[in-house]
């Protein structure tokens, strides 16, 4: 086990930082906020942690903590400015935000190392710390998927108007999505730069958005489990695909395209559907044994009728009629 | 303009003197550009009664509901809930003040079970006992449904369907889940926007019986409906709307026979008829 | 004055590229994120052909146009049509088309990257050579002139097509109200295919022209251009033909100013900053029609 661990250390590290990056984009998507700002926060996080360690000699954990708070605040400010935008417009504004970060990194002069980036960021950051931080972040995200908070997030995504009628402050949730996304992106970037000891402008470009989306789309966009599946697949697949050899990039592309088109809810969504189907079959069999509900005209289920209500309906003996049918005068030519 | 509206200044049925109405509208108007969807409506709703709104399509009923639930901004006028002005509060705060509604179309979350969908309503209750009882680690046991959900499910006769997903249910049953979700909010004012559309006659009778049973809790209900029989069977008091204004109000059986109301429906039909020829 | 030449030529490249994106977005509601990939792959295909044989300018341009149109139609049939068929509402369809486009774009990119080893590729093997001309004291290249002329001609043609022809009318009807258009008996599928083909052809054309005038491009060139094109479109207003031209030349002008006033490395930030500014100040764009969107 530890042999496997040490010989694949780099891949394990990539999986963890990739997972948190994927979550930084998945969390807003799950709230119906079409924001890719997590990739920009990742860039800020990577550079900020690198600079804090390299130029100001902060310890690893302090640097990470400062970075995460910083990117969360930036996320809040960004959200406050643009969370009123919708759909594609919001998405493109956040893409622009991500790309601006790259340009700033190139133009940061000595501070960011310009086009060569930062090197030799050596710290006492351990694997145990990285695993612990990742698990903690994962646990917090997982909490937002169950119980009352989970239902509220679902409602905000699927039907903002309904959410408002259910007492949910939609604007606050959308803003929270930006903050959480910022914190997660910052964490992923900071952890990655501390284990890699280097970061450059090419590491934080448009490709980062594609990578994160890829993990979410293939793994599943509605649950951290999907992001985990995606992160594992896309950090380990290139390694396994060396068997396929030089065409691995293409295979990668085809997998993503197929998943994006045919499985909008990803591998986890398929597993979930399968599980639901099994559950339903079992339940229906039990229900059939008991003499269960009635199948309606539209193929859906409804309860057996209440006898009192049937009697009431019969006693009233009034057909369903609308007010415009009250008169015997001829009606519109509809 | 019809003169069926009593000219006494206040409208609404006589309630016990001195009580504050659950909901009061004072000269409420909603204009979209030049379209006056709702144009100066004043009414008062007392607790424990069922009110109905009738009117031809496009008469402003749904806009009125949207205005009362703050989903549409008021052009002018005042909304008072238990005597408190609410025309400036956010829509999301109304739920906490005891306002629940159903929508004209079924709006359930497709990926949640019936139980979870109804639970969304119970979540909106400020002091939901189940949440408190489960304590800070409550999220570890997400399956514990609150009593409010169990009660709402029982009232709408959805027992046995708690673990189903909306797509498995008939349209009428889905509408019951909508109503259950609203009931689970434990409201003081319940707005039902055509809750029985797509239901058969028996189901309508069941919903009607359900609404009447809820009056005893002091719940104030406002029903928007096309089915006249349902209106007569269910409501204590009916408002008729046309072109964004109230044209008649009173006991259901009287209102449907009111010449102004007949004219609103049939006149419209006649005009449509004439235009199509 | 020489700067003005730069503005006009750069703007024309942006216009040609953004035009295709604008047409599909403004009419059939598809923001095609594979557009940059189509742009790059058309030029790449032309360079492949030129490895085998020597061709003049016109055949090379035609290869670019054909590959672009074909690729776009393929993407429409294999990706976007499938997504639209499965999507439950417009909001989720919008999102999935964006993500699907990003996914599909990986494939041509991977092929080109694999073949070029991510090195720049060009069209030097063509018998057509870029020459400098002198027009009243201004230095311009023949390819610059061609780019400007083609961009303006195609822009005008597209505008007239949308304004006048039956197909254009039907397309605009879809852009304004898809349901009414369906009731009017517009064959959405066929029109969408035609639109995607036209859009792809323009991407292919601009890919070849751009590669000629720059000398060489890399496989990743399409991505940045994509975001710039988006900036052009929203600057002018989605669906507005006048707007996209305005956006393209304004962006080019802003970039040239930054380029001449600074050391040049901030140029890329211009378009990104403009996107931000426009979305915040005037989301409908300068010439855009007001759009009512649900929150």
From TrEMBL, chain A:
<feature type="transmembrane region" description="Helical">
    <location>
        <begin position="175"/>
        <end position="195"/>
    </location>
</feature>
<feature type="transmembrane region" description="Helical">
    <location>
        <begin position="88"/>
        <end position="106"/>
    </location>
</feature>
<dbReference type="InterPro" id="IPR001851">
    <property type="entry name" value="ABC_transp_permease"/>
</dbReference>
<dbReference type="InterPro" id="IPR043428">
    <property type="entry name" value="LivM-like"/>
</dbReference>
<feature type="transmembrane region" description="Helical">
    <location>
        <begin position="226"/>
        <end position="244"/>
    </location>
</feature>
<protein>
    <submittedName>
        <fullName>Branched-chain amino acid transport system permease protein</fullName>
    </submittedName>
</protein>
<keyword id="KW-1003">Cell membrane</keyword>
<feature type="compositionally biased region" description="Polar residues">
    <location>
        <begin position="325"/>
        <end position="334"/>
    </location>
</feature>
<keyword id="KW-0812">Transmembrane</keyword>
<feature type="transmembrane region" description="Helical">
    <location>
        <begin position="118"/>
        <end position="142"/>
    </location>
</feature>
<dbReference type="GO" id="GO:0005886">
    <property type="term" value="C:plasma membrane"/>
</dbReference>
<keyword id="KW-1133">Transmembrane helix</keyword>
<feature type="region of interest" description="Disordered">
    <location>
        <begin position="312"/>
        <end position="334"/>
    </location>
</feature>
<feature type="transmembrane region" description="Helical">
    <location>
        <begin position="60"/>
        <end position="81"/>
    </location>
</feature>
<feature type="transmembrane region" description="Helical">
    <location>
        <begin position="6"/>
        <end position="25"/>
    </location>
</feature>
From TrEMBL, chain B:
<dbReference type="InterPro" id="IPR003593">
    <property type="entry name" value="AAA+_ATPase"/>
</dbReference>
<keyword id="KW-0813">Transport</keyword>
<dbReference type="InterPro" id="IPR003439">
    <property type="entry name" value="ABC_transporter-like_ATP-bd"/>
</dbReference>
<dbReference type="Pfam" id="PF12399">
    <property type="entry name" value="BCA_ABC_TP_C"/>
</dbReference>
<dbReference type="InterPro" id="IPR032823">
    <property type="entry name" value="BCA_ABC_TP_C"/>
</dbReference>
<dbReference type="GO" id="GO:0005886">
    <property type="term" value="C:plasma membrane"/>
</dbReference>
<feature type="region of interest" description="Disordered">
    <location>
        <begin position="1"/>
        <end position="20"/>
    </location>
</feature>
<keyword id="KW-0547">Nucleotide-binding</keyword>
<dbReference type="Pfam" id="PF00005">
    <property type="entry name" value="ABC_tran"/>
</dbReference>
<feature type="region of interest" description="Disordered">
    <location>
        <begin position="124"/>
        <end position="143"/>
    </location>
</feature>
<dbReference type="GO" id="GO:0016887">
    <property type="term" value="F:ATP hydrolysis activity"/>
</dbReference>
<feature type="domain" description="ABC transporter">
    <location>
        <begin position="23"/>
        <end position="268"/>
    </location>
</feature>
<dbReference type="InterPro" id="IPR027417">
    <property type="entry name" value="P-loop_NTPase"/>
</dbReference>
<protein>
    <submittedName>
        <fullName>Branched-chain amino acid transport system ATP-binding protein</fullName>
    </submittedName>
</protein>
<dbReference type="InterPro" id="IPR051120">
    <property type="entry name" value="ABC_AA/LPS_Transport"/>
</dbReference>
Automatic annotation (TrEMBL), chain C:
<keyword id="KW-1133">Transmembrane helix</keyword>
<protein>
    <submittedName>
        <fullName>Branched-chain amino acid transport system permease protein</fullName>
    </submittedName>
</protein>
<feature type="transmembrane region" description="Helical">
    <location>
        <begin position="143"/>
        <end position="162"/>
    </location>
</feature>
<feature type="transmembrane region" description="Helical">
    <location>
        <begin position="225"/>
        <end position="249"/>
    </location>
</feature>
<dbReference type="InterPro" id="IPR001851">
    <property type="entry name" value="ABC_transp_permease"/>
</dbReference>
<dbReference type="GO" id="GO:0022857">
    <property type="term" value="F:transmembrane transporter activity"/>
</dbReference>
<feature type="transmembrane region" description="Helical">
    <location>
        <begin position="192"/>
        <end position="213"/>
    </location>
</feature>
<comment type="similarity">
    <text>Belongs to the binding-protein-dependent transport system permease family. LivHM subfamily.</text>
</comment>
<keyword id="KW-0812">Transmembrane</keyword>
<keyword id="KW-0472">Membrane</keyword>
<feature type="transmembrane region" description="Helical">
    <location>
        <begin position="92"/>
        <end position="111"/>
    </location>
</feature>
<dbReference type="InterPro" id="IPR052157">
    <property type="entry name" value="BCAA_transport_permease"/>
</dbReference>
<dbReference type="Pfam" id="PF02653">
    <property type="entry name" value="BPD_transp_2"/>
</dbReference>
<feature type="transmembrane region" description="Helical">
    <location>
        <begin position="56"/>
        <end position="80"/>
    </location>
</feature>
<keyword id="KW-0813">Transport</keyword>
